[in-house]
């Protein structure tokens, strides 16, 4: 049974008359780290050389999440590095003309490798050049591999190349697993090395209980995705998206990510950001919060007075950070 894919186009329509086909890569692209960036750079060069549209096929949810839920093993669900919005934006920033988003369902999981190639890659996505990782597997029970793609490519007229693992200057492989591990420990510096940029979470500012305002710390409240990869705690951050200025200047802040055990018993994860020396109406705005330094883990305090004392210390830490590093 053919699988329908949703195409998220660029700002212009992807017209088949403009391109004889597509240069495509396929993967989950969790975090869109430096290894992914190298692959996308190679793909973009090939697309330009052959006059093809540069595209990425990715999935929601992560296939491992689908199978973990199917087998009732929630402990095997991988943590999420990015929201789907952030992943798509990062892929676009690295040169993708379009993103083909496949909903990972039973239909896709049961699709044979041959149908995957013929119905999705050839008929739907008009693949003429395919670039994947060296251990790429696809189709029902992961029965398809790079050798199979090359055989079909020779038959149907598309080129298949693979890319070796990308490593840093110390020989360590860039991987989403290592990035998740760094984030789980609140290791912001290592996460930045994997990403080539500051780790960030975007979302719309929502109304909260306004408790922070009564404590002298008004906050921007942002819901985060389930199974968020980064460790709960207090972070020095900077925020973008709050002003209408063309260069979108960053605003310094101190943030709390977690379930707020001192003041809330519901257990919902929330990102609360206090802007330093800045007060503005931000409700409804789509903002990006960049994590700069882990300050401490989330704690449950015996009373609000102790909580406020800790918040004062956190703010002092953030001010010292920005005094030393700026924005």
UniProtKB/TrEMBL annotation:
The keyword Protease does not apply. Pathway: Cofactor biosynthesis; FAD biosynthesis; FAD from FMN: step 1/1; Cofactor biosynthesis; FMN biosynthesis; FMN from riboflavin (ATP route): step 1/1. Its EC number is 2.7.1.26, 2.7.7.2. Pfam families: FAD_syn, Flavokinase. SMART domains: Flavokinase. It is an enzyme of class 2 (transferase). CDD domains: FAD_synthetase_N. The keyword Nucleotidyltransferase applies. Residues 194-323 form the Riboflavin kinase domain. It catalyses: riboflavin + ATP = FMN + ADP + H(+); FMN + ATP + H(+) = FAD + diphosphate. Keywords: ATP-binding, FAD, Flavoprotein, FMN, Kinase, Multifunctional enzyme, Nucleotide-binding, Nucleotidyltransferase, Transferase. It comes from the Bacteria. One of its GO terms (molecular function) is ATP binding. Catalyzes the phosphorylation of riboflavin to FMN followed by the adenylation of FMN to FAD. Belongs to the ribF family. This is Riboflavin biosynthesis protein.
């Amino acid at each position: 049974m053919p699988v329908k894919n949703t195409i998220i186009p660029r700002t212009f329509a992807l017209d088949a008359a403009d391109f004889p086909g597509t240069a495509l890569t396929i993967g989950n692209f969790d975090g869109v780290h430096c290894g992914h960036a190298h692959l996308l750079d190679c793909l973009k060069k090939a697309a330009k050389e052959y006059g093809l549209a540069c595209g990425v096929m990715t999935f929601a949810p992560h296939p491992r999440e689908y199978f973990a839920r199917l087998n009732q093993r929630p402990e095997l669900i991988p943590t999420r590095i990015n929201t789907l919005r952030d992943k798509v934006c990062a892929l676009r920033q690295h040169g993708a003309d379009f993103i083909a988003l496949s909903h990972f369902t039973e239909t896709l999981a049961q699709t044979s490798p041959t149908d995957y190639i013929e119905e999705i890659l050839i008929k739907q996505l008009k693949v003429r050049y395919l670039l994947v990782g060296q251990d790429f597997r696809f189709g029902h029970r992961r029965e398809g591999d790079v050798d199979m793609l090359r055989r079909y490519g020779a038959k149907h007229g598309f080129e298949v190349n693979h890319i070796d693992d990308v490593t840093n200057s110390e020989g360590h492989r860039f991987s989403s697993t290592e990035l998740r591990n760094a984030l789980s420990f609140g290791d912001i510096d290592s996460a930045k090395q994997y990403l080539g940029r500051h780790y960030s979470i975007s979302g719309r500012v929502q109304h909260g209980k306004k408790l922070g305002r009564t404590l002298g710390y008004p906050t921007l409240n942002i819901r985060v995705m389930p199974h968020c990869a980064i460790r709960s705690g207090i972070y020095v951050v900077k925020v973008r998206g709050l002003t209408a200025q063309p260069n979108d200047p960053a605003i310094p802040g101190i943030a709390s990510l977690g379930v707020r055990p001192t003041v809330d018993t519901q257990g919902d994860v929330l990102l609360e950001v206090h802007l330093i020396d800045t007060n503005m109406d931000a409700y409804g705005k789509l903002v990006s919060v960049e994590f700069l330094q882990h300050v401490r883990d989330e704690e449950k305090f015996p009373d609000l007075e102790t909580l406020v004392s800790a918040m004062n210390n956190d703010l002092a830490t953030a001010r010292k950070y920005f005094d030393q590093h700026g924005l």
